[in-house]
UniProtKB/TrEMBL annotation:
Keyword Cytoplasm set for record: no
Species of origin: Nibrella saemangeumensis
InterPro entries per UniProt: T9SS_type_B
Source organism superkingdom: Bacteria
Keyword field contains Signal: yes
Protein name, UniProt field: Gliding motility-associated C-terminal domain-containing protein
Pfam families named among the record's database cross-references: CHU_C
This protein's UniProt keywords: Signal
Listed Gene3D superfamilies: Galactose-binding domain-like
Signal peptide annotation: 1-22
Length: 469
């Protein structure tokens, strides 16, 4: 398939120095505004909304509020002691399970109604900070024990609230939805808060934000970070959630699907260049134009202000197939043609579908590699001739009219160079096209060594002959 154009999908948004940013649309973004202190873990049939303003658990899962050291009495489970990580800012943060090893997936989520709906088609920047809690705070509780890192910490925006259920039914079930922002890399840090952020375009008037893992266990990457803890689970602290509108942006370009090129083809990726946009390709190059000639995954990150958006494209280049050069066989010889191609499918003009073909007769042999995209074919022409032989090992130029010359059958069909040497290695005769006329001239009786060469057949015959007078 000949490709003449390739479209790109790359959303590059403008925000940063000189850009205008809106207010944070998340109420109580650092979880500081509480209704009452939470001293113990949230229990089943209880909702974290009983303790915190604006936020709530949209399922029967049980998120928890955590407080900095010294905020709660010493006997409270929900305090972060001095040896534990502290809230990123302020004195509060919130914790959720993104994975628990048990029968059936278990998740916890937190949800909030935004201060105002997002504008459809407008660009927004959202972020939150997360931290893996890899052991029981203070080493005194086993109720929240986390020894596993996960990915898929996501922010999901929706027009309506999602998954509101209470009681033991569907306790901790996985919410369905595709988060607009999702951390696909593992979050393993237990001491430094990790930012999860991205820019996105609101496809509707979203009014609700839900945070958690929206993927089943099979689609979630996991890694044990503390092997000596008894429970395989991933528990994360969350702090400082924000959603702000970005008022400056540049247009969206379309990518299209992964594609296939044929051997010898290339394609140029041309991104909309701008003095305010920085590009970085997978190999570190930074130009807006990128030329592809070989198979690979090509990715680019475009950054403008605080917004970075990445996209990738997989390109497969189907190689050509190459048979040997046209050749000539001697009668009775066999040529084995062997093919090797990544598609591992073959069709010869003889009807064979094997990767190799044995040739013994004159003809034109065509190999085609079946492909949905490219014409992959090559041809070899084979000629079959009578080659010299048999070659005598004695001739008698004695004038009796019999066996007077060094006579070789079938020598006349192709030009063969004949070189003759005596026992000392001196050349005593040579011709470019032997015609069975060498009679030894005035050479004495003895053994002579010959070499027959043919460039078309790309072969050489060697031997000896006895001259007897």
């Amino acid at each position: 398939m000949l490709l003449t154009t390739l479209r790109y999908c790359l959303l590059i948004l403008l925000a940063g120095a000189g850009s205008v940013m809106g207010q944070n649309l998340v109420p109580n973004p650092g979880f500081e505004d509480i209704k009452k202190p939470q001293c113990d873990f949230t229990r089943q049939n209880e909702n974290v909304s009983e303790y915190i303003v604006d936020w709530y658990a949209p399922t029967a899962g049980t998120p928890d509020i955590w407080s900095a050291a010294g905020i709660l009495p010493q006997n409270c489970q929900q305090r972060l002691d001095q040896v534990e990580p502290q809230p990123r800012t302020g004195s509060k943060c919130l914790g959720v399970y993104t994975y628990v090893a048990r029968t059936g997936s278990y998740r916890e989520y937190i949800q909030v109604k935004l201060k105002q709906p997002l504008k459809q088609g407008a660009t927004y920047y959202a972020e939150m900070y997360v931290l893996l809690l890899d052991r029981s705070p203070g080493g005194t509780s086993t109720e929240v024990t986390s020894n596993t890192a996960s990915n898929n910490l996501g922010l999901f925006f929706s027009v309506n609230p999602v998954g509101i259920r209470t009681g033991p039914v569907n306790f901790g079930y996985v919410l369905t939805g595709t988060p607009q922002i999702n951390r696909t890399e593992l979050v393993r840090d237990t001491r430094q808060w990790v930012k999860v952020s991205a820019c996105f375009v609101a496809e509707a008037a979203y009014s609700y934000l839900t945070i958690g893992n929206f993927f089943a266990d099979a689609q979630t990457r996991l890694q044990v970070v503390t092997a000596d803890l008894p429970r395989n689970a991933a528990y994360y602290l969350i702090d400082d959630v924000s959603v702000t509108e970005v008022f400056d942006r540049i247009p969206v370009a379309d990518l299209g699907a992964d594609t296939t090129l044929c051997a010898g083809q290339s394609v140029a990726l041309d991104l909309p260049d701008s003095v305010n946009t920085a590009f970085r390709w997978q190999d570190g190059t930074t130009r807006a134009r990128y030329l592809i000639r070989q198979t690979g995954v090509y990715s680019v990150t475009a950054t403008r202000g605080i917004c970075s958006v990445s996209d990738s494209l997989r390109v497969e280049v189907e190689p050509a197939i190459s048979l040997p050069a046209d050749t000539v066989l001697c009668q009775g010889e066999q040529l084995v043609l062997r093919a090797n191609h990544p598609l591992d499918a073959y069709l010869w003009s003889t009807g064979s579908t094997s990767s190799q073909l044995s040739v013994t007769t004159k003809g034109e042999y065509v190999l085609t590699i079946p492909s949905r995209y490219c014409l992959i074919t090559d041809t070899i022409r084979v000629d079959v001739v009578d080659c010299p032989g048999p070659i005598p090992n004695v001739f008698t130029p004695n004038g009796d009219g019999r066996n007077e010359t060094f006579y070789i059958d079938n020598i006349q069909f192709l030009p063969w160079r004949l070189s003759v040497y005596n026992r000392s290695g001196q050349r005593v005769y040579q011709t470019e096209a032997y015609t069975n006329d060498w009679d030894g001239a005035n050479l004495p009786t003895g053994l002579y060594y010959y070499r027959l060469q043919n460039t078309r057949l790309r072969r050489e015959l060697k031997g000896w002959v006895e001259l007897m007078r």
